[in-house]
Amino acid sequence: MVSLFCKQCHKQFFAYPSHKRQYCRNLCANIARREHRKKLVCLNCGNIVEYNPSHRTKLAYCSKICQYSHMKLNNSPAWKGGIRIITQPNGNQHLHWATGYSQTKYKGHPYGHLIYKSRARILIECHIERLLKRTEIVWHLNGDTLDDRLQNLYLFPSIAAKNKAIFGFHYDMPTKSNIP
Length: 180
Ligand SMILES: [Zn+2]
Ligand SMILES: [Zn+2]
Known about the structure:
Blueprint: E1 2-5, E2 12-15, H1 26-35, E3 38-41, E4 48-51, H2 64-70, E5 83-85, E6 102-105, E7 116-118, H3 119-128, E8 137-140, E9 153-156, H4 159-166
């Protein structure tokens, strides 16, 4: 047994040197460990969060509710800019109703808040400042469905008008955009 001094309360205590004790009792060790804790501010609400440095956290939240309400859109590491390009497994990006079109989320859209929608339709709606009807069809002139420039888009008033222009007997494919 050797005589030692507690690091926390500076009292004298006796212990075996092989035990390598630094504190007189568990309570002193716990208090000392708590003082090593680091502090971060909650990214959502501003509360102070304590954490152990061995946890190596970068993002601090006081609760799961704060985390889920903050890690949205561009705060999330999985956020890819709001554009979702669906491709078939064989790499095709052709005119299939669910593949090859660029989609994006638009906050506060009347047809659905934060739901993926066709980027071309949203761009046209922003440009002509009215909502597109569900029957109106957007056509990509150069065939590249990911090319959402306004010069490349053609707006048909209905499916029938689109079919008549593209598949009809006296078809005339549009070559120039009709968006003002
Ligand atoms: Zn002590
Ligand atoms: Zn919080």
